[in-house]
Amino acid sequence: MPKKLRFAVPVAAAILFLASSNLMAQAGFGFRAGATADPDQFHFGFHVETNPFVSHLTFRPNLEIGLGSGVTTIAANIEFAYKIHLSKSPFSVYLGAGPALDVYHYSDRTHTGGGFNVLAGLEHRSGLFGEVKVGAIDSPSFKFTVGFTFR
């Protein structure tokens, strides 16, 4: 692993976990995987989710690693999600957004930049979820992710 990536991965993970633990107690953690467009990649990672700190609003930072198209991507996403509980249903819809730190490692160079994501998802009370994410600036342009949150 290149020297810059060996440094970026633990720093991004520490930022995600320290930020969430300082704001409030962790309500859950989970794993995620999916497909990314621009660059075209398979991505996987993990997330934490806090208890709501304002009505229905949670802090949901995540770290995703993307592989494919001749580049390795590390995305540290600092996202907030607003949950809308569907009455008489085990499902919730959520909408969110937040900034990102994106590191792209090519065979001959590394590029680091900031980005911003807007997301929407559907989540079952068991923890299973599906999510779409649109990125701007240096974030991947589109992601489809499925995952599970342990509560």
Name of the top-level CATH class? Mainly Beta
The coarse overall form would be elongated
Count the domains.
1
How many β-strand stretches?
A: 10
Named CATH topology: Porin
What can be said about this structure in brief?
The protein has 151 residues and is mostly beta strands. 14% of the residues lie in helices and 62% in strands. It has one domain: Beta Barrel (Porin), CATH 2.40.160.
Protein model, in words:
- The protein has one helix at residues 3-23; strands spanning 26-37, 41-50, 57-59, 62-68, 71-77, 80-85, 91-105, 110-124, 128-137, 142-150.
- Helices cover 14% and strands 62% of the residues.
- A hairpin with a 3-residue loop joins strand 8 (110-124) and strand 9 (128-137).
- The protein is mainly beta.
- The radius of gyration is 15 Å and the shape is elongated.
- The protein is built from one helix and ten strands.
- It has a single domain (3-150), classed as Porin (Beta Barrel), CATH 2.40.160.
